[in-house]
From TrEMBL:
Protein name according to UniProt: PP2C family protein-serine/threonine phosphatase
Residue ranges of domain PPM-type phosphatase in the record: 215-432
Coiled-coil ranges per UniProt: none
Listed transmembrane segments: 15-35, 47-70, 90-110, 152-170
Organism: Candidatus Scatavimonas merdigallinarum
């Protein structure tokens, strides 16, 4: 605009334009400096910035009376960004006041508006315009009142409409942001609670290895990788007395917090029943009836339970709908041991379970796991399967229980790739040393 006026595009006194344009530009740039140096009373900063904005538009609008009409809507729209009705009210009042001043100043200093002046003859200079306005008033044409009625009021009405639309949208947006902020706080709270729940769940599972450093007859290792922050799988192992080691592998239906809560109950009941000296079959039957009581959520759990007699190498096992274990005999390979399985726990009251015996000798390895291993899928939705699991175990068959579990987990990860993990992966390996 400045350059166009120099070449005569706008009919504005060049001296006046040379004063108005630098002043307007300075007022527009001043907020950028204020943001950097203003340290005290931050709440006042937005009012000072908006004041500079209004003065800048007012200065230019007084000069370019026709071309900058729409510019007055900008401060109102910008003020809505602060989501403060009070600030938007202040801005609208400032806009209406500054625009009123700019309209009348423009009569004397700005671009000649032939429609407003009712004269196609361009009058330059303040003196000539003042005389023209005075003559019009004396002739019964109150130019000042006519400008107010037909120029200022319509523009002000448009700005009020812009204000009403802007503040309505601002309130809606502000409410949405507040709800989003509340949702984010709630998600953070839930995330923190889930993190604590994960730590609590992890602390409930045996996680210190070697678990029994004083026992040279066997080596044991277990691990759980939940698909979510907290999972429904669990394992357990504990000595019921000096000669008996209980092994538990279980998978609760569902995922997340409900499964974790049911897992805590099931794990506690299983351990209490096993430590009382019951056989694996009796443990499952007792715990099944306990879990069926008040099971309004209709959850259930699959359980593989074995009690290993260390002195004889005899392993008594009962299975409640769980995966078949894999066993490697000394100098042999891993293979599934397919025994008959009973119904899941908490699925039906008074269910009966079978019990069978296994003989474990020096060099034998027992591997138990949840269905998250065999049912892991890749991007093409192909199952990992027990075949790949056995192959991974046999490739690392000479390793320790810890190395076996890591070998299987690494093989599952390679197979799955970038596909998401939908089920918990839990494994336990027991190696007989003598």
């Amino acid at each position: 605009m400045w350059a166009l006026n120099i070449f005569g595009f706008f009919i504005v006194d060049k001296l006046l334009m040379n004063l108005a344009m630098p002043t307007g530009v300075l007022l527009f740039l001043l907020p950028s400096l204020l943001v950097r140096v203003w340290k005290r009373r931050q709440w006042m900063l937005k009012y000072v910035i908006m004041g500079c904005f209004l003065l800048g538009i007012g200065t230019l609008s007084s000069t370019l009376t026709i071309q900058l009409v729409l510019a007055w809507a900008c401060p109102v729209i910008v003020s809505c960004h602060y989501y403060s009705p009070r600030f938007t009210h202040f801005t609208l009042a400032g806009v209406l006041l500054c625009m009123l001043c700019a309209v009348y100043i423009g009569l004397y200093y700005g671009v000649w508006d032939a429609n407003m002046m009712r004269s196609s003859e361009v009058l330059e200079g303040i003196t000539m315009r003042a005389a023209f306005i005075s003559d019009a008033i004396a002739a019964g044409d109150n130019l000042l009142l006519r400008v107010f009625n037909f120029y200022y009021i319509p523009r002000a009405a448009i700005l009020v409409v812009v204000y009403l639309i802007g503040i309505t949208l601002s309130k809606r947006t502000h409410n949405l942001l507040r709800r989003q902020e509340a949702d984010n706080r709630e998600k953070q709270r839930i995330g923190a609670e889930l993190h604590v729940a994960t730590q609590i769940q992890a602390s409930m599972l045996p996680c210190i290895f070697p678990a029994f450093p004083e026992r040279k007859e066997f080596d044991i290792y277990a691990a759980m990788n939940p698909a979510r922050e907290v999972g429904g799988d669990f394992y357990d192992f504990f000595l019921t007395d000096a000669d008996h080691l209980a092994l538990v592998m279980a998978d609760v239906s569902g995922k997340g917090i409900p499964a974790a809560l049911f897992m805590v109950i099931a794990k506690t009941l299983l351990k209490n029943a096993a430590q009382s000296g019951l056989s694996p079959r009796a443990v499952l039957e007792t715990v099944n009836n306990q879990l069926c009581e008040n099971n309004e959520a209709e959850m259930f759990v699959t359980v593989w339970l074995g009690i290993y007699e260390i002195s004889t190498g005899r392993l008594k096992v009962a299975n409640a709908g769980h995966e078949f274990p894999a066993i490697k005999r000394a100098n042999g390979e891993f293979a599934l041991y397919k025994e008959k399985s009973g119904f899941v726990l908490a699925g039906m009251e008074n269910a009966r379970y079978r019990e069978y015996n296994l003989e474990l000798h020096k060099g034998d390895v027992l591997f138990i796991y949840t269905d998250g291993v065999a049912e892991a899928t890749d991007a093409a939705n192909t199952l990992y399967g027990t075949g790949r699991m056995l192959a991974a175990l046999n490739r690392a068959s000479d390793g320790t229980p810890k190395e076996l579990l890591h070998a299987v987990k690494d093989d599952v990860d390679r197979f799955v790739g970038e596909a998401p993990q939908f089920d918990d992966i839990t494994m336990l390996a027991l190696q007989i040393k003598g």
